[in-house]
Write a structure and sequence with these properties.
Distance between the termini: 26 Å
Largest sheet: 6 strands, parallel
Strand order of the largest sheet: 10-9-8-11-12-13
Strand content: 5-15%
Structural class: alpha/beta
Number of helices: 18
Shape: globular
Oligomer: single chain
Number of strands: 13
Length: 359
């Protein structure tokens, strides 16, 4: 995003106030503390000088974007506001859907000082539950995904079968992606339990991709639980725990035929948009706020957890029909969610608050 803002003529300084690492418009990441300082001494210095570095950074910029609105930023909003610079608050799904009631109340201090609050269109109703007083500050946009463009480009050159071979998957198998990270909220075990109800002869024709490259905690034994559930099936599978290269991640998306997402909450996850663009058939929990996709004419199947096996079986038995129903999804999502689509909105937001000043 920093690079793309520069392409729009907006120079940016991205600051992680917890580590005191910064990223320039040229993409250079550096620490605000000398590199030779480490260990406990570094942690103490970060804590002592966090506010002063934050204020210095803010003073040399024109617009402040609190990018991710975790409740923990509420302690810093008065410091940020003292610079008298317009503030944008950019919300992500987890900021709302995975915050406690008390955390949501604390977040209001961020919105109080913000001139503009940016979020996905499907987040507004939830936002109003605790922050209705700031609803007049809301505008709509979403974070882009570099993988959308990569997927669109790669699928012009490679077939699904070719991507399956690259990953060591039998191209004759139907590839099913289960969730998109290693958190318990993804409900892998619920999905695998439902899938296990299918006939063994059909399960033998499937290969499961389970992306767990982030969010997985070995300390709670969840990885072992996922592996144990997969081993009960006569299907081949691979759980991805290590970070993937851009090319390998793109290949996993394009090799996949079906993506199942029954996580407890979601806003407009990039992983789901990538699955749409990679021509996956999507089966999602009927509680997820995906009406925005439905309104765009994007086709996907909604299910209750207990009905997963029924819908999944119907899709497997009618793959050609479902692929035809999904044939327009990729273009609709790309025109809605690619960086080329969202960057003009971000740029216009920053220019608007800059010219209007604080409110």
């Amino acid at each position: 995003m920093v690079r793309r803002l520069k392409d729009c003529g907006i120079t940016t300084e991205a600051l992680d106030i917890w580590s005191l690492n910064a990223c320039t418009s040229e993409g250079r990441v550096h620490s605000l503390l000398p590199s030779w300082i480490g260990g406990l001494f570094r942690k103490v210095l970060v804590k002592l000088f966090r506010r002063s570095f934050l204020i210095k950074t803010i003073r040399r910029n024109d617009v402040i974007d609190v990018h991710w609105c975790g409740h923990y930023y509420h302690d810093y909003m008065e410091d940020i506001s003292k610079a008298q610079k317009p503030i944008v608050a950019t919300l992500f799904g987890s900021d709302l859907f995975r915050s406690t009631e008390q955390e949501r109340i604390l977040q209001n201090k961020i919105f109080q000082y913000a001139s503009e609050v940016v979020m996905g269109v499907n987040m507004l109703d939830e936002f109003k539950r605790h922050s209705a007083a700031y609803a007049d500050k809301v505008s709509f946009n979403q974070y882009g995904s570099k993988y959308l463009d990569e997927i669109l480009l790669t699928k012009k050159k490679k077939s699904k079968e070719a991507c399956k071979r690259e990953l060591g998957i039998d191209p004759a198998k139907t590839v099913v992606t289960i969730g998109y990270n290693g958190k318990r909220e993804q409900q892998h075990l619920v999905m695998l339990n439902g899938i296990s109800e299918l006939p063994a002869t059909l399960l033998e024709t499937l290969h499961f991709i389970v992306p767990c490259t982030y969010g997985l905690s070995d300390s709670d034994g969840y990885h072992a639980e996922i592996e144990a559930a997969l081993k009960q099936l006569p299907s081949s599978y691979r759980v991805y725990c290590d970070k993937l290269s851009d090319a390998d991640l793109t290949a996993t998306k394009l090799a996949s035929d079906i993506t199942i997402n029954l996580q407890t909450t979601d806003a407009l996850s990039s992983s789901i948009k990538e699955a749409f663009v990679a021509d996956n058939i999507l089966i999602v929990g009927d509680w997820l706020p995906y009406d925005v996709y439905q309104d765009m004419g994007v086709y996907f199947e909604r299910v209750k957890s207990e009905d997963l096996s029924i819908v999944f079986l119907a899709v497997l038995n009618n793959m050609a029909l479902y692929h035809e129903r999904c044939s327009g999804n990729a273009q609709k999502i790309a025109s809605f969610a690619s960086w080329d689509a969202v960057m003009p909105v971000f740029c216009n937001t920053y220019m608007k608050v800059y010219h209007e000043g604080r409110r």
